[in-house]
Amino acid sequence: xxxVEEQGRNLSEESTDESEEEDTEEExxxxxxxxxxxxxxxxxxxxxxxxxxxxxxxxxxxxxxxVYLLDIQGNVTQKFEISPVKINQISLDESGDHVGICSExxxxxxxxLYTREGFHENFDCPIKVVALHxxxxxxxxxxxxxxxxxxxxxxxxxLNRWKTSVLHEGEGNITNVKWRANLIAWAxxxxxxxxxxxxxxxxxNVLRDNTNLRPDMYPCSLCWKDNTxxxxxxxxxxxxxxxxxxxxTEMRDLPSRYVEIVSAFETEFFISGLAPLADQLVTLYYVKxxxxxxxxxxxxxxxxxxxxxxPEGCEEISSDALTVRNFQENQCRDYRLxxxxxxxxxxxxxxxxxxxxxxxxxxxxxxxxxEKKKYEEALMAAEISFRNIKRHDVQKIGMAYINHLVExxxxxxxxxxxxxxxxxxxxxxxxxxxRFKTIGQLKAISQYLPxxxxxxxxxxxxxxxxxxxxxxxxxxxxxxxxxxxxxxxNMAIVQAVNEHLKxxxxxxxxxxxxAELYTYDQRYDRALEIYLKLRHKDVYQLIHKHNLFSAIxxxxxxxxxxxxxxxxxxxxxxxxxxxxxxxxxxxKDRPELLHVYLxxxxxxxxxxGQKYHERQISLYAEYDRPNLLPFLRESMHCPLEKALxxxxxxxxxxxxxxxxxxxxxxxxxxxxIMEELADxxxxxxxxxxxxxxxxxxxxISYSIDKPPFITGLLxxxxxxxxxxxxxxxxxxxxxxxxxxxxxxxxxxxxNLQILLREGCKKIxxxxxxxxxxxxxxxxxxxxxxxxxxxxESCHTPxxxxxxxxxxxxxxxxxxxMFHKECLPxxxxxxxxxxxxxxxxxxxxxxxxxLEMKK
Length: 854
Prior knowledge:
Blueprint: E1 3-4, E2 10-11, H1 18-23, E3 30-34, H2 38-45, E4 48-53, E5 58-62, E6 66-70, E7 76-81, E8 87-92, E9 98-103, E10 107-112, E11 118-122, E12 129-132, E13 143-147, E14 150-156, E15 162-169, E16 176-180, E17 183-187, E18 191-196, E19 201-207, E20 221-224, E21 229-234, E22 237-245, E23 257-266, E24 270-277, E25 280-286, E26 303-310, E27 313-321, E28 336-340, E29 345-350, E30 353-359, H3 362-371, H4 375-384, H5 394-408, H6 411-421, H7 426-438, H8 442-446, H9 458-471, H10 473-482, H11 490-503, H12 508-520, H13 524-534, H14 539-546, H15 556-562, H16 564-573, H17 580-586, H18 591-604, H19 613-623, H20 628-634, H21 640-649, H22 653-662, H23 666-677, H24 680-690, H25 693-703, H26 707-716, H27 723-729, H28 739-780, E31 808-812, E32 817-819, E33 849-853
Antiparallel strand pairs: 1-2, 3-30, 4-5, 5-6, 6-7, 8-9, 9-10, 10-11, 12-13, 13-14, 14-15, 16-17, 17-18, 18-19, 20-21, 21-22, 22-23, 24-25, 25-26, 26-27, 28-29, 29-30, 31-32, 31-33
């Protein structure tokens, strides 16, 4: 709902109902401004009666019989004194070179704006309408129509005279006429007719619906949407008519064209004007409302609506009530709606006011969004259409959005928008930072500050860090981790942190942050000390990243205390930087840590730390006995005597047994197993490992008076020693547990051995036969001898150059070849010769012979 202001801008929110204004949030489709300049002065002294719009200019007729040509800003360019009474209608051709004017006193003038040619006629009745042929400028289209009590067509013939034809009469005054291409539409008291100028036929008659309304008070509105579509508005009724070509088979005596009403609907108010807008319709309404609840100043304001026509009705798209001057005194016939086809401009003409309605552009859309405080949508619209907007700047809209968020208290959102809006403008960034400092919200903007190639002054970053250091240690630590060290003066921040540590020296968060600052400053030794003091997990990463191995040579114990596994792995992986001897030296007073280091070293390489194997024996015995025996088994460098001494001192029986057996004292080892461990299974296993007949005799001798041991021997001895030896030595009458089962097992083991031997024999015989057959087939094959082969004795070609002469060649199965005369005499066995080369293998692959004679 809009009031058109003198300044040229429509205030579209003024409404007849305040509650309606509060509820509506729809954006208006049109914007309004008054036509001012010369028009204002004209309408102060006179009143507008009609107006015609051309793409180049406007033509305004007044009640005092004057016609003004205006530019689109309302400035007067020409003035014509036509009549002392009201100008009823002005018509222009498409070129804008000719104008037709009619007045209430019956005068009709048609003349060229830039030529002297013209038509002047006075009628004895008021002439209400005039319309020029759209192509009037062309010599063969010098036609126009006038309408009073009848519709007359004027045509100029070849003698340059005007010929008059009556197109229609007898149905009252002609109130409106519109000419488009070859079609003339006019309205009288009965209805609307359409005349085809090319076929000289009237093709339709559309009757008016509401005959109760006076035609002079509620005149018909006509508008051509295109060359074949006519829009009729009369009273509260709208009809959309389409002129179509008739099928030739249906013509008979009918016109070649006919009209189809494609849409018809009723409106809420009375129609004063119509104009097309793409596929929609712009309607000017006269509102006749005498509701008691409505104040006098808001009654009967005209409305400009955009509607969408439907086959059986219409849909309202937008509606604006216009407060034009003296609207309280106007009637339906006092309003007119004209439009410019070149642009979407609509002119609302009333006696004392002319208002221009325009489609809203992107700038207007942004204005409305800003007015409704929809800043985010406004910013998005400006970014999308930044090439098309003229009055707005994307950054200024963004700044308005930021200001709005700050005023609303949404500081985080405001700071987040700074990143997008401020972009690379460092001055704006600094201004915003100081503003956020003023309102105590530096924390909100800190995470969005530029930190890449474009940066603010170091003082800005330092100011924010000091703010965090005062109030939020955790936030301070986060910024130090996220911000590159080049953004600020590192030494100044280190000094500030140290000042805070004087008050709270054990604060782990501050200490960690200080270590990070030292790291940025490449003072890695100071950072390493703090990390070790705090047992921080990043200490190993720091050492590797900055190659600080020289700095940790005297801190190995601290590293081991923190995490033995990681420390040892690091030391072993970098033994070229920290020698093994240095590590052992540092850990000599911490044998438990030394053992961990040497144990992992031994696991990686059994020979690398061989000089420490003697020391490792006591370390394993003290801290890791389960790994002592595996160490003794795998080490080739530990002194056995020293190891035996330690194991005997600590009564490590299993380790002592292993050492005794390794030193060759197997009897003593077996004795310890039997006496100390009393484990016949281990004793038998030990005897099997040594595979010594004397050990078996000792084991039998020791076990002969111990029935449980005898049972164990009977169950396991069968595959290693003849069981009869044991059975013969068992005393008569001795009770042996499970003797029967043991004897059965001995017999089963014996049978199994027999079966295995027979199976192996069969396999051996079959394999021998198969290999013999293969060798026989191989030796039966011929051997190719050609000129490339040489004698292995004289190293000359094996075949003579003249093969016609007699020659002899000997070829062994090993593929060595000799001239017969080059072979030595046969050996002890007559008729058998051996290859000289392979003779070391006596009766090897060269034992056979092939002889070639010719």
